[in-house]
Fold:
Amino acid sequence: MSDDKPADKPVEKPVDKPETAVEQRATDQSPENAPEALGEPGVEIRAVGERRGMFGVEGSGDTSGYGGLVAPVVLPGAAQRPYGPSTGSGGTGWFDGVADRLDPRIEQVVIHRGEITFHVRREHLLEVARKLRDDPDLRFELLSGVSGVHYPGDAGRELHAVYHFMSFTWNRRIRVEVSAPDADPHVPSLVPIYPAADWHERETWDMFGLQFDGHPALTRILMPDDWPGHPQRKDYPLGGIPVEYKGASVPPPDQRRSYN
Structure:
């Protein structure tokens, strides 16, 4: 019989890991680990705030279990020419062609996940919209939607209006984005140029409080006319309506007790 002893197994060095899935997700979304998908290669991202918790509950606690989540709010940075998509060796693409027709009205161009967004100042919005519709080299015949975004940490640019355009002639889609401060939430209405913007602008006003100057009837479309505030703004209280079921009462989410 051999007296040889089995070789000792190498001791594995412990690796520091987040204790919970919430901590892991917070680590993955920290600024130094921000995903490259937020911008094209070589393009910086811009932080406009920080998100804590999952649903923004304060005071009574977050009953979802995600109260410890901390994630940066980041936006893709400006892209550099050529924007693409390429038309061949050494050539530029139709992104650059649209940008050439809209210059010098463009404030910033963002390329994100292969899609292009033109940021323009609100005072240039009407001119840009007419150019998109009437220029024979552009011919964006359809405004398919208007949506709003609220970034409380983007000082002086807290409210954003995002317009989605499509060209049936060239089979192209682009976005145009304008911003306005909380203190002056006014943006020109595009209804005189694109009548399809009518109900979209009403919904954006209803949910975010953006005032579309020149709209023929800027009234609420989802909430009652006397509803206070605009429900999709980040600073709007979570609230809720108490529910009664067989004698038991379930309070609104922001009035429930915390379990963490």
